[in-house]
Amino acid sequence: MDIPFKSYWDLLWTHVRPQMSRFILLVVLLFTSIGLQIFNPQIMRYFIDTALGNQDGPLMLAAIAFISIAIIQQVVAVWATYTGENVAWTATNELRAELAAHCLRLDMSFHNDTSPGELIERIDGDVMELSTFFSSIVIRIFGNLLLLMGVLVVLFFEDWRLGLVFVIFSIITLYVLNLVRGVAVPYQKKFREATADLFGFIEERLAGTEDIRSSGAVDFVINGLYQSQHVVYRFWRKREMAFMLVRFLGGFLMVGGTAIAFVLGYSLFQDGILTIGAVYLVIRYVQMISRPIRELTQQAESIQNVGASIERLSDLRKLQSKILDGPGAAIQEGALSLDFDRVDFSYVESEPLLHQMSFSLAPGKVLGVLGRTGSGKTTLTRLIFRLYDPVSGTIRLGGTDIRQAKVDHLRSRVAMVTQEVQLFKATVRDNLTLFNRQIPDERILDVIRELGLSRWYESLPNGLDTELESEGRGLSAGEAQLLAFTRVFLHNPGLVIMDEASSRLDPATEQLIERAVDKLLENRTAIIVAHRLGTIERADEIMILDKGQVIEKGERESLAHQPDSHFHHLLQTGLEEVLA
Amino acid sequence: MSVQLQLNPTKSSLPTWKFLWELMRFRPGMYLLFGFLEICFFAVFPQLIGLIVRAFFNSLNGERPLGLNVWGIIALLVAVAIGKTAATFSDVVVYFRFRYGIEALLRKNLFESILRRPGARAVPDSPGEAVSRFRGDVEEVAFFMAESLTTIAYTLFTFVAVVVMVRINLWITFLVFLPMVIVVYVANRAMEKVQKYREASRLAAGKVSGFIAETFGAAQAVQVAAAEPRMVDHFRSLADQLKLAALKDRLFNELLHAIFSNAANFGTGLILLLAAGSMREGQFSIGDLAIFVYYFEYITGFTSSIGEKIAWYKQVGVSLSRMIRLLGNDPPMTLVEHGEIYDRGDLPAVPVPMRSETDRLESIQVKDLSYHYAENGRGIHGITFTLRRGSFTVITGRIGSGKTTLLRCLLGLLPKESGEIRWNGRVVEDSGNFFVPPRAAYTSQVPLLFSESLQENILMGLPEDTDLQSAVHLAVLETDLTALEHGLDTLIGAKGVKLSGGQRQRAAAARMFVRQPELLVLDDISSALDVETEQVLWERLFGEGERTCLVVSHRKPALRRADQILVMRDGTIVAQGRLDDLLKTCEEMRRIWQGEDETQPTNAEVSIMNIVE
């Protein structure tokens, strides 16, 4: 069997187990439903023989019994389906949450390689396959097997030859169909990949319509759609061909089964062993098992589908973040000191980025970091958050090695304001607190007031409950920045990093935000990474990076007045940016 | 925070069948062939089998139907069944060819409509949610069309079946069908509820996938804020809502199904009751009983699916509405417009923009241009200015003054409300299609790149042998290229995430430069650049040859180089001219130059606080 049973078990069963009582109910209902199904044709047999044989008998009663049992069977079947679906959803929702949590914790190199569209395919698409697999398929497979076995047993009771022939027949049929089952798995996998690519392509291009249009690349991109669709078509076709083989065989074998039933039925009738009613019964039962056998085939196809999903989900779960928690050292409260101790780092092994970087920053001080793009400014901020770990060297916050602390604890003590503010389609409150429902509204409003943003707040149509558009469209760049600052304030860190924060604002509005920044920097250590010298004016110390090394560090005032310092030179070239 | 479920999406005013009819006409040959095969498969063969089964049982009773003995009948059965299996094969082949054709056509029309529309407001919802239209809704329509032929086949079958049954025994046929018809009718009406639950289920699913996209798109922010558990909790609650919606949907469906199945059993029981007497008297043979039961099951199966089909038909209407919403202002029938889907593998050639005489820019005159956003009425008005060849025009102003709106409106990325734009004296009718390369190219404030190689991103359809070097040089990208592992062939990841912010901006600039447009339009490109890199960029840009530039900036180097500065405030130009003059005469200019704040909020500041720039 090439269903990865173990992986399937790991994935789903662990989530089904907490619902044991529901699961048991499901099993009971299934047994009942099948049992009733098998019983009903017996009534028909009795009816036919009695009627044709011109005997007396409570035929009316028989008919009514037939109807009643049919109704009860239906009710039980619906109940069973509902319960099965319930179990499946509950279990897979747990799995979805587990996967989301797992993926969110993976380090940034994973996220840079994986588009959100792909993750939707995994967490939504593949998990949905598992859910459907369980509720529609596992249950039906179980029901069908039960039905099949039940019918075979009853046939045995009718006549041992019937039982034997059909047991053999069933075994052969199932065996052959199983044999060809594995054929389609690789095609299914490729098909899903091609589909994921297609929708990834569409999602990306839809986000970038402005860029596409203004680059005159519309026809080119539309061609891209044709290409992606065509790839999907090719794999779809191959997959269908593979599946058809299975269906073909299935249909063929079922014809054989009915013919056998006719032949056997006729012979036994000739020998007087079966009455006409019994022949009818046998034919009816054989027709009854054609559906389960057929469905078992189709379900075999679905097993192939889900095999691919299971593989992908298992692979995903196996991924480990390279960033591991430390033993749990505590990082102190209040403004934090920062130490970089001979830190080396590169994203790619062959291209080292930071070289033996070392510097210290006292608590409560503001450090301005300057350097060209690519000199390592943004990288060093990512290292402080342990979005990546250095290749060698140590980083300390408040004297504690950050690798010794738990990652969550570390991240609760530092915060970052970036140029791109990531926003969600949710309320303003949820965007400010990042879904932290523990923070009371009063505190949020306090912070808004403290930062001088009351005017902005009052302009919101629904206050904190105002819903933002997805990805924060509908907010100007300035408002997004205001939101980002409020977020950081609520976070209450000991070290703040402002990475190119004020770049997209015009100077007039920037002043407004500068006041907010002033408040933010009270009793906190800060690192400001910027391109513009104007932003640096609030720094106590300056550090200049070049090619991953510190080429200058010192107090801003003194460096500005030293004619041979790099900082002084920069001030000269960007002379206009210096404020009195 | 409560989640509102919208249960009544705007319906298109055109009836569903009109769209389906157009789709049927798309590949009529294939549709008819498919229909024929479906009829064989679902109508002809089952009929034959039913009749053969009847013959078998009657022969057990001593008759000789069709002049055959039992063995002959069995052989006939096998032959028919083999024929059915063969029909299955061709049926499936045509089936997915047909379905694919429909899906490809719908997607192509949606995609083209979105891409050819003014760029800035192209997609009504987030791209993530729009994708669900491309997936679920497209599949729904295509699937329905394929299945609708099955319905037609079944109808034929039913017709023949009823004729056969009436010829056997009119009275039983009537008595048995009557209650069944009533039950089915009642249940079908209840099907309308199905639509409501299905739609709710769809909406909940959209919320879940939308949230996944957003959360993982913002992975860094989430990690940095240690917000993973909270995001997951919120995700859980969305997933639970989806579960409830899906369970309701399923339960309702199953209940209705059960009613229909019971109609079959109920009917069978009725047949038994009514036929008892006739069977005793030999007027109703066992063969007749067998075929009645066989037909009955088939027919009730079919009529239950009628209810489903009606509900599905309505659901298809909803899917069509959802897709039409993506069409924006294009007429709804665009969705099903026939066209090439290139499923044979050869693609259309990409037209290379030809440069003609009239494309040479001499002057651009803008007069009284205006546009206002529907949400809040803010925007630009009364915009009037002139650009000459070789000039450098800077638009400046505080946040919310309308600078980006102006650029977008000029370039046709937003549809202007009023005003006139002239190119070399001639009025431009359709800015969106006019101001594209080779005439104009645009780099926005937050340019988007795609998960291809850097080279492909810059070229975006231009021929492979295009000269990239000068564009790269102008955009100050060479040092970055040497630093990147594979240079221009580096895959830059989803939305260009493997590049730094500055590299992305400059790559987008290179993308613009390589097209050598007559007019270069940049919206605040220098925000991700440091002082020195920015200066190099301006130096290179103005160092070689004549370039006409229209730029949004508040940076001093740009303002100094400008031949003309347009100062904007509250959506209109308050001053124009050269820097020195403006510093003397315009307070707003001075303010921007020096970056002072006001002690009292002005109208401008209050309007800054409002939504959308």
What does this structure look like?
The complex is a heterodimer of chains A (580) and B (613). By secondary structure, chain A is an alpha/beta fold. Chain A contains 19 helices and ten strands. A six-stranded mixed beta sheet of chain A has the order 6-7-8-3-9-10, with helices on both faces. The relative contact order of chain A is 0.08. Chain B has 20 helices and ten strands. Chain B has a six-stranded mixed beta sheet, with helices on both faces. In chain B, strands 2-1-4-5 form a four-stranded antiparallel beta sheet. The longest helix of chain B has 53 residues, at 228-280. The chains are: A alpha/beta (580), B alpha/beta (613). The interface between A and B is large, with 164 and 184 residues.
Share of helix of chain A, binned: 55-70%
Q: How many strand segments of chain A?
A: 10
- Tell me roughly what share of residues is in helical segments of chain B: 55-70%
**Uncertain residue ranges of chain B:** 1-10, 596-613
Topology (elements, then pairings):
The complex is a heterodimer of chains A (580) and B (613).
Chain A: H1 5-16, H2 20-52, H3 59-105, H4 108-113, H5 116-158, H6 160-179, H7 185-207, H8 209-214, H9 218-270, H10 276-318, E1 338-345, E2 354-361, E3 366-370, H11 377-384, E4 392-397, E5 400-401, H12 407-413, E6 414-418, H13 428-433, H14 441-450, H15 454-458, H16 477-491, E7 495-499, H17 507-521, E8 525-529, E9 541-546, E10 549-555, H18 556-561, H19 566-573
Parallel strand pairs in A: 3-8, 3-9, 6-7, 7-8
Antiparallel strand pairs in A: 1-2, 1-4, 4-5, 9-10
Chain B: H1 16-24, H2 28-60, H3 70-115, H4 127-168, H5 170-190, H6 192-217, H7 219-224, H8 228-280, H9 286-325, E1 363-372, E2 379-388, E3 392-397, H10 403-410, E4 418-423, E5 426-427, H11 431-434, E6 440-443, H12 454-459, H13 469-474, H14 478-483, H15 501-513, E7 519-523, H16 531-543, E8 548-552, H17 556-561, E9 564-569, E10 572-577, H18 579-585, H19 587-594, H20 603-608
Parallel strand pairs in B: 3-8, 3-9, 6-7, 7-8
Antiparallel strand pairs in B: 1-2, 1-4, 4-5, 9-10
